Amino acid sequence: MFRLEKIFQQNDLLFINTLIFLKSFIIFLSVYIFSILEFNSIFDLSKIHIYTKSNYYYFSFYFSICYFLSSFIINTKKTKYESDFVSFLFNDILPLFSAILICILIFSIFNIDFKIDINILALLVLILLNLFLGKLFFKYLYDRLINKNIIQRNILLVGSAESIKKILGEQKDKINIYKCCFIYIDSEQDLIKIRQEIKIPVFTQNTDVRSMLEYHALGQIWILDDQDSNLVDYYLKYVIKFSVDILIIKFNTDLKLVSTNLINKKYQYINYEISKFHGTSLFIKILLDKILSLIFLILLSPLIIMSMILIYIEDGSPIFFTQDRTGWDGRRFKIYKLRSLKKIQFDKTQQVEKDDKRFLKIGKIIRRLSIDELPQFFNVLNGDMSIVGPRPHMVEHDIQYSKIFKSFLKRHKTSPGLTGWAQVCGHRGATPTPDHMKRRMDADLWYMNNWSIWLDIYIIFKTFYIIFAKPGR
After folding, report:
1. Do residues 138 and 232 share a domain?
2. Domain that residue 29 falls in
3. If 0-12 CB within 10 Å is exposed, 13-18 middle and 19+ buried, where does residue 63 land?
4. Which of 108, 293, 311, 389 has the fewest CB atoms within 10 Å, i.e. is most exposed?
5. Is-contact 281 14, C-beta < 8 A?
6. pLDDT (tens digit, 9 = 90+) per residue, 289-300?
């Protein structure tokens, strides 16, 4: 799983920036094709030497680069992908003519030889046609990603029955999917009536919110602010401890319509509590996860296979240990480890200690060198985990410590990791007391509030240092 829905959780910047690059390539390709077809046949398209000797060779590079820069500057503040004709004129055609003017200026200043004739108009028509066809394809692709529930935002609406019915009755952005709603209500009769009027699942203050978030795979909570501050404060206190992003939607009439922070092109919103893990940076993190996981699995496969053989010789099968853990937004997944404990009956919720009597002989070694964790690279490839992130705990421990620490579940605002800031800061291994867990939780929350790709790279290198220089730490 590529977690595309998380990349698009806050905005469409990755999609917009990718389109800028692809449209620049379309322009380059259009000039390349035209440079050959101007005096040759379609069968000569593979003859690059015709292109390099043509009038358009240098022009193709300058024009594509100028278009890319112009398009990037014009679209720099856009956070939502738009596909209507007006946006096509502004986002595609305006950068095109800006690029033409810039190229003319550059060619004039530097005396670059470029022949201008009637054929330039034909080239321009070809570019316009290809950009328009590209627009139709990109719109189809974006709509398909939404319709297939690949980049959708699964939303829990929180507010009064009137405000929820209002927002459900209005036109919405396609990417927003209203999965369920939460209403504070005292009367059972009123609840029955509201459930008949609202066509999505309705939950109340008696609902286990954690189970609801997990079951509906929710990624955002919208608190509908209809100017009842006491009720908004109540809703915030009720949902603030959970790992899902929280937005406050303003239901007033004094709107700044030029604002980029608009829901459904109508309501302003405030990012009350938002995960930093989204957009282009998250996309890069995911790509690094996949690439590094494949590299590590290939390089470390002899070590994994040897450990598997030794485990089987000492204690038979199963060789792997699996257990339910909590992932992003509280979604459960099966974690994979090499088995380091004996096949005896014991409480699986009991944490493993340094001199645990349940250890296999080989188990002590693979545990000390963290070899037992290597199969989790398959969890990373599957999209359940990341190489760097908060370590996933047993579901039972998540439930236990979430009752002690209000911010504990916020650790689930990103994918859990093989290693993390807490581990390289000395909070590795068992957490026998709530104080140990609090120190780990605080380190995890610091990481999530200060995350960057460079911090991930630093943690990866420091993890190797700890494993080899201070094994078992």
Report:
1. no
2. 4-147
3. buried
4. 108
5. no
6. 999 999 999 999
